[in-house]
Amino acid sequence: MKFLSSIAFIFIAGVFTTLQAQTIPTGTSWTVTEKKDVKVHTYMSPSPMFANTSHIIELKNELIIVDGQFFAPYALELKKLTDSIGKPVTRFYISHDHPDHYIGFGDAFPNVKVYALAETKASIEQAGQGVLEQRQAQFGPLIATKLNKPSVIQQPGVETIGGVKFIFEKSLNNESAVSLIIKLPELGVYIAQDIVYNKIHLFIEGDTKGWETALRKILKDKTYKIILSGHGKEGKTNLLKENLNYLSYVNATILKSKNKEEFKAAIIKKYPEYGGEQLIDIYLSYYLKPKNWVN
Ligand SMILES: [Zn+2]
């Protein structure tokens, strides 16, 4: 999910005007899978707060976190969870440079070493502080006071950490321009983050061919049965087909609609159980501009 436009935030700001930091709904966490000395846990913010996930890979003597929330109170809940496990966090990964994955955890995890792909590190280096300040201006105490920016470049490749095999891959032009995929073949876990959404409206900016290619690539990889999403709970491979169907419906509906209202009504009708309806408003206002629409 992408939140680059500060104006776009005014749209969703209304959701939070009556919420104080201490009264926002709490997130949830659960153990996704475990095998020998490894467990994978997920912490997720509530659905109206975009169901942002942070995953914890619990190794024998250490914890590795993937993605760090948008709102600071949720990163603090994540910290409580890692404290309760009682092992040190040795690496904090950022999957891609959209703010909902990196601006939340600077206060909760100020000293943990942050890893990212070279492109993501450079992008946050360049734009991260400005993005943080914009969000602070709009959401006040719900936003962290500082960033913990990537300091270590993760190269694509295979690495064994705490006796567990990790495969790091770079994926291009999916939901974001560049994203890090982390695969744990021994557990059959594929950490796809925003390539996959689960029952939250996908954030559409325009052409989705690259995104569809990334989804099909995961489908072909038969080693992985558990797909971890960036928004919403994990799923099995049918989640990939659901996302592909969603994108295909979106593209057909873009062609059939005359304007944003028609488009949005059709999407909501087709996917009434999905969360994150305001995301459709944001991308329709600021990102998606089909040539065949009149407004
Ligand atoms: Zn996102």
What molecules are bound to this protein?
zinc ion
Q: What is the CA-based Rg, rounded?
A: 18 Å
- Give the SSE order as H and E letters: HEEEEHEEHEEEEEHEHHH
Which CATH class is shown?
Alpha Beta
Shape by Cα distribution? globular
Unreliable stretches, pLDDT < 50, 5 or more residues? 4-11
Number of helices: 7
Span between N and C termini? 24 Å
Strand content: 15-25%
Write a structural description.
- The chain has one domain: Metallo-beta-lactamase, Chain A (4-Layer Sandwich).
- The protein is α/β, with parallel strands linked by helices.
- The chain contains 7 helices and 12 strands.
- Strand 10 and strand 11 (189-197) form a beta hairpin.
- Mean pLDDT is 92; it is low at 4-11.
- Bound molecules: zinc ion.
- Residues 1, 98, 100-101, 194, 230-231 line the site of zinc ion.
